Amino acid sequence: MAHSGPFRCECGQLHGLEFQGPSNDLLPYIDTPGVSALNESVGGACRRVFKPYDQRLEHEGFVDSEDDDPQLLLHIPFTCPVNIRSLHLVGGEEGATPRELRAFVNHETLDFSDAELMPPVQQWDIAPTDPTGTLEYPTQFTRFKNVTRLYLFVANNHGAEQTRIRYIGLKGTGTDHKREAVKNAVYELKPTPETNALKDQTSARIG
């Protein structure tokens, strides 16, 4: 399992790469209406974290996990296959920023039990704070080519009862080969009684 995050240099401080702005921003390739999440406190709020880079620090537009449960599972479809070079995330305050973030690519469906048991293509340790919103988390690029669906699993945060995400940015290139739309398809994660039961079991096990 690939594992990466900001770098700690000889001075003892935590440093990350800096996001260089909208160049190679994959926002135009994200199928924003199709973005969905499991365990969000307000349905559809996850779509609001995909916004222009210059709005990354704005307090309007965020997604929270449910009360007393920091986990989130986001599904991000693209309008065409993309190559993802890095990820950028701005979280909440007072421990609400995601800590352990796992990525999965090109699965038709994914639920919490899958995300807990399957090895991710990459895992990042997210810094607890990023006041300027410039930390960037590189991908293992060969594992993120021709991505049509990206799942991001927030396994835990930095100690808060809820997780908050204000902004997610993806940097890379689009292929411009449009994905064939499936008529009447709804690209949305929908919890089922079985999924909720598994989630409750997982939470009890983690707790």
From TrEMBL:
The name this protein goes by in its record: PITH domain-containing protein
Domain (PITH): residue spans on this chain: 15-190
GO cellular component terms, A-Z: cytoplasm
Family stated for the protein in its record: Belongs to the PITHD1 family.
Domain of life: Eukaryota
Pfam families to which the protein is assigned, alphabetical: PITH
